[in-house]
Design a protein that fits this description.
Elements lengths: L8 H4 L44 H8 L1 E2 L2 E2 L10 H4 L8 H5 L24 H30 L1 E3 L15 E8 L7 H6 L10 E9 L7 E4 L5 E4 L3 E4 L2 H4 L5 H12 L5 E5 L1 H10 L3 E5 L3 E3 L4 E3 L2 E5 L1 H9 L7 H20 L2 H4 L2 H14 E4 L4 H11 L4 E4 L2 E3 L2 E2 L2 E2 L2 E2 L1 H12 L12
Parallel strand pairs: 3-14, 4-9, 6-15
Antiparallel strand pairs: 1-2, 4-5, 5-6, 7-8, 9-14, 10-13, 11-12, 16-19, 17-18
Helix pairs in contact: 9-10, 9-13, 10-11, 11-14
């Protein structure tokens, strides 16, 4: 059975403890405590047999190969978790405890042995990146849309130099022309809108728009189509005849307006019946305060008095009708100014410009429907719309008389008042109140 006088790990637990000796170890406790754990004092020399001796290599491995009840690899001394021992970690580096060590993983020591604290991503940076991406997309779309719309616009030669042309004047001046062209309307639409089937083009509406450089309100002046004025090469005739002559058209009309007003035209824009309907429908109709009941079979309308939204076809009839007023043509010019202001103001409103379902159809409808001078681009049309949203002053050329000449009823201007009106516009000044008409 062996020598009872010699101790070993199996017999020590059966013997009575020796006075002054350390208490016996619990089962499973390592023979030598791990580094960093609580330590027992060394037994006196010779008092514990092998207790004071260096254990053999295999015993040392058995004593250090189990950490917290689980086997581990290697024979290096066991180190406690760096976070449990010191905020600086096992290496004494504060960055390792705070998560700055590369290679560590949050919540554990990882390769670096330090703890990494979890830091949430900054939401502001993500929002800025998203915003920057949206700005880039919008810029690309805007630039692409500009070139597409600009390339689709129909351009005509309207403004040309000639001897005696007025010098450039302050502000920006537009000649806005509405023709009775049926181009773009189907046979069914011509019947529905009561436009008839006349061929060719005649000017149905002419207006002069002055946009000041000083930021004042624009001025929109109706030029009655029956105005009796001198036309180069044709003597005196109605203003709209300058457009209808075989050698006329936009160039002769613009030249005539410049010569009788003394104002140099910077931009020319023309729109026919078909384009008129398309633009109104593209902006979802336009709200008009109808001053009286209007029933006109020739214009295809039956309107009641009051504020209401008109679609493209109804609006076309509203500005064309001559069924109201003692002087139908004057009433007509009032409605044209009222309607044009309402259309352009709505087209330039944020509800249309910022709504792609409105602004995109409007842009394409305008590009396909209007004809502009060679000097006019998409940005010029946008500036026109923004200016008209500034509640322009609307008036008509002061009228002197309504004689009949050569069998035709014509309109003669009040020359003195008309000159004061156009001189104010040429000097970029407000129009005198006493020359403003209704």
């Amino acid at each position: 059975m062996g020598d009872w006088t010699e101790d070993d790990d199996r017999t020590r637990a059966l013997r009575s403890p020796t006075p002054g000796a350390p208490p016996p170890r619990a089962a499973g406790q390592p023979a030598y405590p791990a580094q960093g754990a609580g330590r027992h004092p060394e037994p006196p020399a010779g008092g514990g047999g092998r207790r004071g001796e260096e254990p053999p290599g295999d015993a040392r491995l058995r004593g250090t190969s189990r950490v917290y009840g689980k086997p581990r690899e290697g024979s290096a001394p066991v180190r406690p978790l760096s976070g449990a021992a010191s905020p600086e970690g096992a290496s004494g580096d504060p960055a390792r405890f705070s998560g700055g060590s590369s290679g560590g993983r949050g919540g554990g020591g990882g390769r670096g042995g330090g703890l990494r604290s979890w830091r949430p991503k900054r939401p502001g940076r993500l929002a800025l990146r998203i915003l920057a991406g949206l700005v880039v997309v919008l810029l690309v779309v805007a630039v692409g849309g500009y070139f597409m719309i600009n390339s689709r616009m129909q351009r005509i030669e309207a403004l040309t130099d000639y001897t005696g042309r007025p010098a450039d004047t302050p502000g920006t001046n537009w000649l806005l022309v509405g023709s009775d062209s049926r181009a773009g309307l189907t046979k069914a639409q011509r019947k529905k809108f009561a436009t008839g089937s006349a061929v060719g083009r005649r000017t149905d509406t002419m207006m002069l728009l002055h946009i000041p450089d000083n930021g004042d309100r624009p001025t929109l002046v109706s030029l009655p189509r029956d105005s009796y004025v001198p036309i180069d090469g044709h003597g005196r005739a109605k203003l709209n005849a300058a457009y209808a002559y075989g050698d006329g058209g936009p160039k002769l009309l613009a030249k005539t307006v410049e010569q009788v007003t003394g104002i140099r035209i910077d931009h020319y824009m023309e729109i026919g019946f078909g384009g008129f309907v398309g633009i109104v429908d593209a902006i979802g109709g336009v709200e008009i305060d109808v001053k009286q009941d209007i029933k006109d079979r020739k214009a295809g309308i039956n309107l009641k008095k009051g504020r209401q939204v008109l679609d493209g076809g109804t609006a076309l009839g509203y500005v064309r009708t001559r069924a109201t007023g003692a002087i139908p043509d004057f009433e007509r010019t009032q409605r044209q100014r009222q309607f044009f202001s309402a259309v352009v103001k709505k087209a330039a409103s944020p509800g249309v410009l910022l709504n792609p379902f409105r602004s995109v159809p409007l842009a394409f409808a305008a590009a396909d429907s209007v004809a502009v001078g060679e000097e006019t681009g998409a940005f010029n049309l946008l500036s026109l719309g923004l200016a008209m949203g500034d509640n322009p002053v609307t008036t008509v050329v002061p009228i002197g008389s309504l004689p009949t000449i050569n069998g035709e009823a014509v309109v003669q201007w009040d020359r003195a008042k008309a000159l004061r009106l156009f001189e104010a516009l040429a000097q970029d000044k407000p129009v005198p109140q006493d020359v403003l008409g209704k």
